């Protein structure tokens, strides 16, 4: 069983939007952030459309993880506005966060608890009762091939298994927007392909919106919406073909090189 | 593609708040049970004071009849409430240490991206730590009973609300302190500046009239130390009485520490030095 077999997320009616107006799954408007005197983000604006796969591409240090921390409210906004399906994360954080599933770059599982206990804890944090949590967790664990490890401590899992568990955990409360920050770090080639494939199916089959941050070109497809972030600024956004046309280049590599003035070093492509 | 037009509830029901509280307390209890050495060390510390220190000082420090006691008591009996408070003091600091650790290791992110209000999540974390400290105190009392520390039976019940309040106060203090700590490595120094002064400048080991005889200045320091009032609140409650002044001080201090901790808590502290998500910025 692979990550590609993860259950479809489905859309929780409790997390559905309040109106039928077409609102962006994620809207980022004029966001800037500084660590003291050091500027990490400057006037960042872009949107993730509902049921789309948006890749946020940038080298290490581009500001991707700072942006993730702002979207998840780990950092407070210094300027600008972020909303999830129309709910502002500053004025309506509860409504915004209940629609968001997150996989952080570092592991955030509790190593001393079992696989099932980690999922149940996450469910409790979203106000999901024990019975319902157990049912959803059983289903997810079966699909990712960890049903027989439900009672094992997380520290006994492999790195790939932990990442699969984190994806399953992020889906447990049935979010409409999934945010994955460099989720394939530490995975082998097959596990990485399985993971990306599954996440893409969540978009096409279930209408989940995805923001995928990465520094790897080969995780991006021609049909994706793309945002290029470099030194805290959005240099380009849109379809790859459009970005290539706008920059007068052929393909993503050349466009990226021209926009950033750097050779991409992180590619597995 | 536009978003589906479904109606949804806003906010959370009381049941969902309760589920969240249960989940956090349950996780804290599980972690405590898994860390057996933490449980043992939490008991060994006060027991060493009771079995060794108190035995040595029994003949040196005479205790006159002071409320809530109605007769002469052994020194071991006198310091028991202080040791109960000491357990909660260490637990409160250890809980905040755990928050700093969780913040560095990433587990705290799981808690903080919950859609429930952040003040509520932190309060739940505090309540969970308090519940664990009360378990430790009762385990200590059970062992102390074999050492002839036998408060009235009703005292085991009447002391419970006092322990809940003092546990909250000391946990909130720990949370307030942890809010100002950027790195796990800084915590030991802060502990030394908080735990030892609070414990020794209090009525935990000696009655304040004794302190007054030795140093009037220290006496006033002890009077202003909220830990003194935590000890006295527990002492009176263990004998079925209420020390109203201590109750007011502990209640007020709990509110002040709690508000301070909520206002000061900044999840980005400790994350920034390694980047927002542990690897980069």
From TrEMBL, chain A:
Keyword Transport: yes
Pfam families: ABC_tran (PF00005)
Keywords, alphabetical: ATP-binding, Nodulation, Nucleotide-binding, Transport
Database matches in SMART domains: AAA
GO MF entry, a single one: ATP hydrolysis activity
ABC transporter domain sequence ranges: 26-256
Primary role: Involved in beta-(1-->2)glucan export. Transmembrane domains (TMD) form a pore in the inner membrane and the ATP-binding domain (NBD) is responsible for energy generation.
Annotated family: Belongs to the ABC transporter superfamily.
Protein known as: ABC-2 type transport system ATP-binding protein
Species, as recorded: Rhodopseudomonas rhenobacensis
UniProtKB/TrEMBL annotation, chain B:
UniProt entry tagged with the keyword Transport: yes
UniProt GO cellular component terms: ATP-binding cassette (ABC) transporter complex
TM regions (residue ranges): 42-66, 72-90, 126-147, 153-177, 189-209, 242-265
PROSITE patterns listed in its UniProt record: ABC_TM2
Organism domain of life: Bacteria
Keywords for the protein's UniProt record, in alphabetical order: Cell membrane, Membrane, Transmembrane, Transmembrane helix, Transport
Membrane topology: Multi-pass membrane protein
Main location per the UniProt record: membrane
Residue span, ABC transmembrane type-2 domain: 37-268
Compartments (UniProt record): Cell inner membrane; Membrane
Keyword Transmembrane helix set for record: yes
Pfam family, one: ABC2_membrane
Gene Ontology molecular-function annotations: ABC-type transporter activity
PANTHER family for the chain: TRANSPORT PERMEASE PROTEIN, TRANSPORT PERMEASE YVFS-RELATED
NCBIfam families referenced in this protein's UniProt entry, alphabetically: phenyl_ABC_PedC (TIGR03861)
Family: Belongs to the ABC-2 integral membrane protein family.
The name this protein goes by in its record: Transport permease protein
């Amino acid at each position: 069983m692979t990550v590609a077999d993860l259950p479809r997320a489905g859309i929780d009616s409790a997390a559905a939007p309040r109106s039928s107006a077409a609102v962006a799954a994620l809207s980022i408007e004029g966001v800037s952030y500084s660590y003291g005197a050091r500027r990490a983000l400057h006037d960042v604006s872009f949107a993730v459309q509902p049921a789309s796969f948006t890749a946020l591409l940038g080298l290490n240090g581009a500001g991707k993880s700072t942006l993730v921390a702002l979207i998840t409210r780990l950092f407070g906004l210094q300027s600008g506005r972020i909303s999830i399906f129309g709910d502002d994360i500053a004025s309506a954080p509860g409504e915004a966060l209940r629609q968001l599933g997150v996989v952080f770059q570092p592991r955030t599982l509790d190593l001393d608890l079992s696989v099932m206990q980690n999922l149940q804890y996450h469910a409790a944090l979203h106000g999901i009762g024990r019975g319902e949590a157990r049912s959803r967790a059983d289903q997810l664990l079966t699909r990712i091939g960890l049903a027989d490890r439900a009672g094992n401590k997380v520290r006994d899992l492999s790195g790939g298994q932990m990442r699969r568990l984190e994806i399953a955990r992020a889906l447990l409360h049935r979010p409409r927007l999934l945010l994955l920050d460099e989720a394939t770090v530490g995975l082998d080639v097959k596990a990485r392909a399985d993971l990306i494939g599954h996440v893409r199916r969540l978009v096409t089959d279930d209408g989940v919106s995805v923001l995928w941050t990465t520094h790897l070109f080969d995780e991006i497809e021609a049909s994706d919406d793309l945002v290029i972030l470099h030194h805290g600024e959005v240099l380009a956004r849109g379809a790859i073909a459009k970005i290539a046309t706008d920059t007068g280049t052929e393909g993503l590599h050349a466009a990226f090189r021209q926009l950033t003035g750097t050779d991409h070093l992180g590619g597995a492509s | 593609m536009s978003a589906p037009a479904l109606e949804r509830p806003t906010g959370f029901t009381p049941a969902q708040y309760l589920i969240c509280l249960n989940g956090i307390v349950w996780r804290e209890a599980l972690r405590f049970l898994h860390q057996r050495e933490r449980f043992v060390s939490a008991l060994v510390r006060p027991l060493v004071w009771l079995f060794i220190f108190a035995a040595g000082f029994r003949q040196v420090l005479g205790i006159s009849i002071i409320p809530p006691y109605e007769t002469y008591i052994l020194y071991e009996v006198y310091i028991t409430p202080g040791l109960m408070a000491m357990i909660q003091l260490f637990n409160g600091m250890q809980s905040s240490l755990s928050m700093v650790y969780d913040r560095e290791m990433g587990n705290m992110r799981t808690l903080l991206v919950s859609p429930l209000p952040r003040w509520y999540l932190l309060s739940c974390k505090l309540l969970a730590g308090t519940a664990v400290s009360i378990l430790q105190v009762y385990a200590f009392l059970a062992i102390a009973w074999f050492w002839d520390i036998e408060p009235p039976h009703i005292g085991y019940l009447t002391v419970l609300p006092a322990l809940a309040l003092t546990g909250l106060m000391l946990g909130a203090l720990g949370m307030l302190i942890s809010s100002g700590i950027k790195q796990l490595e800084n915590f030991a120094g802060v502990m030394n500046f908080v735990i030892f002064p609070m414990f020794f400048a209090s009525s935990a080991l000696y009655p304040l009239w004794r302190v007054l005889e030795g140093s009037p200045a220290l006496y006033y320091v002890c009077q202003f130390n909220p830990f003194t009032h935590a000890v006295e609140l527990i002492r009176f409650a263990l004998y079925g009485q209420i020390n109203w002044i201590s109750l007011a001080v502990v209640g007020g201090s709990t509110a002040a520490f709690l508000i301070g901790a909520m206002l000061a808590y900044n999840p980005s502290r400790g994350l920034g030095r390694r980047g927002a998500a542990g690897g980069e910025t």
